[in-house]
Amino acid sequence: MTYRVGFIQNQPVFGDIEANRNRITHLLEGFEADLLVLPELFTTGYQFASREEANDLAETISGPTTEFLTAFAKNKNLFIIAGLVERDGDAIYNSSLVTGPDGLIGRYRKIHLFDTEKNIFDAGDEPPPVFELGPARVGVMICFDWRFPETARSLALSNADVIAHPSNLVLPHCPQSMITRCLENRVYAITADRVGIEQRIPGETLTFIGQSQVVDPDGNVLVRASSDREESAVVEIDLAKARQKSINPANDLFRDRRVDLYRLS
Amino acid sequence: MTYRVGFIQNQPVFGDIEANRNRITHLLEGFEADLLVLPELFTTGYQFASREEANDLAETISGPTTEFLTAFAKNKNLFIIAGLVERDGDAIYNSSLVTGPDGLIGRYRKIHLFDTEKNIFDAGDEPPPVFELGPARVGVMICFDWRFPETARSLALSNADVIAHPSNLVLPHCPQSMITRCLENRVYAITADRVGIEQRIPGETLTFIGQSQVVDPDGNVLVRASSDREESAVVEIDLAKARQKSINPANDLFRDRRVDLYRLS
Fold first, then answer.
1. Which of A258, B91, B251, B259 is most exposed, with minimal Cβ within 10 Å?
2. What is the reported pTM?
3. What are phi and psi of B206, to 5 degrees?
4. Which residues of chain B are modeled with pLDDT < 70?
5. DSSP conformation class of B143
6. What is B2-252's CATH superfamily?
């Protein structure tokens, strides 16, 4: 059961949503896949100086960025998961939208906000979701969610084959740790990260590490992008592999869990 | 609050408990630390052809291996955590014993048995424990337990500063994944592995990967041994670092958990 998954690694210009969308159009020339993952906050940039600044760039889940991506999804017949500054009433979320050829499918609002994001965004209050996107069951988490093993675990136990992981990484550990996330859950993971530097706040220079990647359930890195260039990549994956939680005749990573003996609250 | 932790990486001769203990004595010459971790099944070797064979080499938790290590612990004034084929009535466990200058302190019976271990051992039916060993709170897990994020998480949430991890690793991923375990829980981890090859069963050659290591709560590998030599190492760690779950002014890795939104059963 093959499925083609890919990512775009971009370098947004802070605050210029239209330029950043147009740049994506350019990066997507010739892109063919079943699922495309774009970075966290891919149209706006990351380093908001205030909640008001984020609010000025926020859109509703049915806004122009969703329209833009849905048109592309129809045109290319694929599903897209992408970061969005989402406004809902007075709330602002660091969200990912999920869209496809038939229009908007859903969204996820980041539940583990990183550092000063807590001054900018409201935290999501719904579990990370899993969507049926064609033959694949795709779970969504955003960037810093990786640091909490419960996020990927919850998605995998909710039957995700693939974890789509829009990111804006500034710390070094995530690309390597996503290998552990795939090994422990036997899922695929697509981390779509950005590159470039933002220094909009004095004394706070953010260097984004790129290294967008696709990892398989055996912990193999199928593709990993550079740390400093805009790029795209597509790889073919085998969904059956992610549904096989056995690693040998005696061990099934889900059935072997000793839920009665864990202390996780 | 400094604490010196170390490991021995040995190459046991299968079934020759006395020779293996004597070898440890040799490897421990000049060893000075507060906590020593020895590999899983360090006196017996790993590849039992049958449960009967394991039973023949099994000892009670107060048996000669514990006596041997306790004498050493008294002599050197340190705590020791080490693998043992433990017999208790008709049951046989893949255990780790915990001893110190004042005698036996406790044990842990492996709860996630790997592959054909399921034909040899009974699975433990108690949660992975945490012991106060001097100023340190030390949790114990064994080898394949690493693959289940719940094990290290349970220990960390039970206030472990350090995870002692006796191992006999044959797959390649654990040393790297233990970095993730330390990053997600902000604990130290001491993986004591073995080296050498066992081919006691036709068609089943086991090559143990060594690479015993100590990792800190920031994911730094403080020391990592070779993949093919007997070795020991000691490093000084700072327990306060493991009790600080904050990674920046806004994020505390324990307080930020969204237990209400996880689906882990």
1. B259
2. 0.98
3. -110, 120
4. none
5. G
6. Carbon-nitrogen hydrolase (3.60.110.10)
